[in-house]
Amino acid sequence: MKFIEDMHLNNKRVIVRCDFNVPIIDGKITDDSKIVKSLKTINYLLEKNCRVVLLSHLGRVKSNEDKNKNTLLPVKESLESLLGTEVTFVTDYPNEDIPKDRKLILLENTRYFDYPEKLESGNDLELAKMWSKLGDVFVYDAFASAHRRHASTSGLASLLPTCIGYLVKQELENLNHVKEPNEPFMVIMGGAKVDDKLPLIKNLLPRCENLLLGGGIANSFLKAKDINVGSSLATTDENILLDLKCLIELYKDKIVLPIDFKDKNTGEIKTLEELVNDDIIYDIGPKTATKYGNILKNAGTVFMNGTLGMSEEAGFENGTKKVFEYLTNVPTVVIGGGDTVAAVNNLGFTDKFILSSGGGASLEYIAYQTLPVLEDIK
Ligand code: 3PG
After folding, report:
1. Best of 21, 335, 357 for a ligand 1 pocket test (most atoms within 8 Å of beta carbon)
2. Is 318 in the pocket of ligand 1 (CB under 6 A)?
3. Hey, is 140 helix, strand or coil?
4. Which domains does the chain have, with CATH numbers?
5. Alpha-carbon gap, residue 21 to 17, rounded angstroms
6. Which residues make Cβ contacts (< 8 Å) with residue 351, sequence separation at least 6?
7. What is the distance between the alpha carbons of residues 155 and 377, in angstroms, rounded to a whole number?
8. Which of 42, 86, 135, 175 has the fewest CB atoms nearer than 10 Å to its CB?
């Protein structure tokens, strides 16, 4: 795999695939770390007098409303203020001409080409060819998308001379800490849905000492154990529940589940035995945090993906915050994923851990030691 510094790039037209899939609430970016991490590559190319065309996805696009909701306009504004230079935002390529004299261009969300037909996510070669006309070289710098073979990732890599940028190189170096972890290696997993993550969980369980769970994932495991989770988010897929039941039996000493929680409706802290059907588990409770802290005391390396509750909502961040506090005493901690990194930054732990911009991508890299898009970059 070639690195940006190995290429002859002076005065070239360069397409850069970034991952600007940042959290946005009411049009405001709530955590810009993915954008900040992309600046080194962009500045390097501007210094080489390249014409730079930036591509990124944002969210999922399955309807026209999703298009309005997932515009990259806030990213253009953020880039302009971070770089101190004008960014030409092209909202309707190829119908809209790109002015030839512009040095830095951002195209609208690549996933606009996922509706009405899934061209971007379907890795449509014609779409990739259309974008490829904008550049002589492709710089792949979207670590967080490297688990997705899409037209703007693998498709473009198959058409143009390709290298990785500074962000991807740094991410791979960071994640090597977890590839060969100091034992005991522990994993903390939270976030909403278990379904996508099940194959990764299966792969990680034999390799880790403990898997500590929170969020909707933990609820699904509790449900599989026939523990009532009331109205909380949990999978309804019977096959997945059966799979989780088997995992709990097979790895009963490794999988660690919450014992208490904070209810969304009343804000009350309750044990799982006290849960009633209207309750919604929205954070782990203090007993769970202490239990997790005692286990984490022994860890050599921890990888964490997903928060343990709805940490972005005031009053439901304490479980995640407490666990971050315990993690400050662990020798090596790598934290991956947009929401989790946002929680690290917003709760004041920015400099304490190794942060990865990839959620799904970092999990897959740790589980399989490679990523599909990186495999496609020769
Ligand atoms: C991420 O934030 O993890 C990446 O941008 C991937 O997003 P996706 O799951 O929508 O492909």
Report:
1. 21
2. no
3. strand
4. 4-171 (3.40.50.1260), 183-330 (3.40.50.1260)
5. 12
6. none
7. 10
8. 86
DSSP 297-328: TT-SEEEEES-SS-TTSTTS-HHHHHHHHHHT
CA angle 11, 112, 70 (to 5 degrees): 100
364 CB under 6 A from ligand 1?
no
The finding on whether 359 has its CB within 6 A of some atom of ligand 1 is yes
What does each C-alpha distance from 153 to 142, 305, 348, 375 come to in angstroms? 8, 23, 33, 11
Q: Which atom of ligand 1 is nearest to the CA of 59?
A: 10
Q: Is 360 in the pocket of ligand 1 (CB under 6 A)?
A: yes
Structure confidence by residue, pLDDT tens digits, 124-169:
999 999 999 999 999 999 999 999 999 999 999 999 999 999 999 9
Taking the model in full, what pTM does it have? 0.89
Q: What's the 3-state SS for 32-59?
A: CHHHHHHHHHHHHHHHCCCEEEEECCCC
| CA atoms of 353 and 324, how far apart (whole Å) | 9
189 CA to centre of ligand 1 in angstroms? 16
The per-residue pLDDT for range 93-132, each reduced to its tens digit, is: 999 988 888 999 999 999 999 999 999 999 999 999 999 9
- Which tokens sit at 17? 């695939």
Q: Which atom of ligand 1 is nearest to the CA of 358?
A: 3
Contacts of 148 (CB under 8 A, 6+ apart): 121, 372, 373
Testing ligand 1's pocket by substitution, the residue of 34, 35, 38, 148 carrying the most ligand atoms inside 8 A of its CB is 148
Tracing tokens 């732990």 back to the chain, one arrives at 349
Q: Is the CB of 109 under 6 A from ligand 1?
A: no
In ligand 1, the atom with minimum distance to the C-alpha of 144 is: 4
Which ligand 1 atom sits closest to the C-alpha of 57?
A: 5
**Strand positions, DSSP E, 18-136:** 24-25, 28-29, 51-55, 88-90, 104-107
